[in-house]
User: Fold Carboxypeptidase E-like from Nicrophorus vespilloides.
Amino acid sequence: MSSSTGMAAAVVALAVLSLMGLVGRSQGLLKPFEFRHHDNEEMRLVLEDIAGECSDVSRVATLTEPSVLGTPLYYIEFSKHPGRHQILNPEFKYVANIHGNEVLGRELLLKLAHYLCEQYRAGNPEVVFLVRNTRIHLMPSVNPDGWQLATDTGGQHELIGRYNNNSVDLNRNFPDLNSIAYSNEEFSKEDNNHLLKEVNSLTQPLQPETRSLIRNILQIPYVLSATLHGGDLVANYPYDLSRSGKETGEYASAPDDETFRHLAKAYSQHHADMADPNMKPCNDENFAKNGGITNGAKWYALVGGMQDFNYLASNDFEITLELSCQKYPPASRLEPEWERNRNALMNYMWQSHIGIKGIVYDANTKQGVPNAVVHVTNMTEGIPREIKHDILSAHDGDYYRLLTPGTYKVTVQAKGFQPHTKLVNVVQRGYGTAKRIDFPLHGHNFQERPLVHANQMPFNGWINRPQPIVVQ
Ligand SMILES: *[C@@H]1O[C@H](CO)[C@@H](O)[C@H](O)[C@H]1NC(C)=O
Ligand SMILES: *[C@@H]1O[C@H](CO)[C@@H](O)[C@H](O)[C@H]1NC(C)=O
Ligand SMILES: [Zn+2]
Assistant:
């Protein structure tokens, strides 16, 4: 079944179910959404109201640690079975307000949560399909203390409220994995994934907000994410650090450069005018002339950002979205901004279904194999081009490999098994789930062979991982 016929069938089935009152049956009255700046307490109430009204597909929880001032870092999750990873369902996240004075993303995510709940209950086939086939995490504010300071001081200063309450820029506080990746490149050592275990010192102490985010990144097998900022209008993709140390103007491509460019465009081109060359740029650079996207380091280099950390510490592909010229727009701008961003926010979530996914399993026992290494070579142009960034299968053996259309050689390898290679054709598909390619692995009693890359276990030594605290 092709994805588009699958989707069409699903849509028809859902339409019938919703006529029968089986989808989106109303549980109570969802309060209408108010477009205004919600303070930290109001944000919690909005999320809890939504999770209460859509309790079969959502829940509110907090990250493991609160902010410096003790404010919990709330998130809301939407999925078929909230609170659990579902085999073959990709995990997605949006994170906003890491810079406390960049507040649009925070309100957009509250509205998005409300929209998903409302549309799910109304039986909107797109939303129902997405929620049932994706686990979506929305974190409206990971720097609530900065938000409070920015708000208390009028919100119009470039920097006041950007930092957390220890005056640390959280988006510079992540361990620098780029330098490790670049030095591995120089020594022709191919490690370019799950690099946290190669960190042996930190240049600055991790803030509680950063620690919470890192634990979340390591705990959930995310496939795709974006972090929402303000101050410009552009979709920024890895890497954020230049290889030479140059501060601006040097393109730093990641092994998945083509996929990242696709992902950034999946946002910019579905935004009302991020990719419109007739728009007046916010600042000096006219990103719209280039499709509304930019490589991070080409724009300006930074160390310790969350975007590159996600890519180099986990399976997650993350981009950074600058959503408005104004960091703290007036409340009257929030509704029009939602309209300008809605399609882009939806379209980007769908990208967690591009490429291929499947289950790596032991051909004898039929058990899923976790931490299997998935290595990809691009064969589209005949000359093999290796993509030097492997991803690992998750706990139950399921893996997700985001890819743009093309022909790929995919090799899966795990300790104690023979490698298994398949040639895969990825085509552009409409909204639907990724093409499924499973990998049975043989040869448990073969001599143990070394891994493609000897880094199969996600690092968990220097950071303990208590379970998230469930609020509701
Ligand atoms: C920390 O929070 C307190 C209490 O809100 C505030 O007075 C102070 O200015 C904040 N400090 C920083 C560095 O953000
Ligand atoms: C593979 O190569 C084709 C042809 O150059 C290209 O269009 C595609 O984006 C590449 N895929 C990836 C994931 O780099
Ligand atoms: Zn920012």
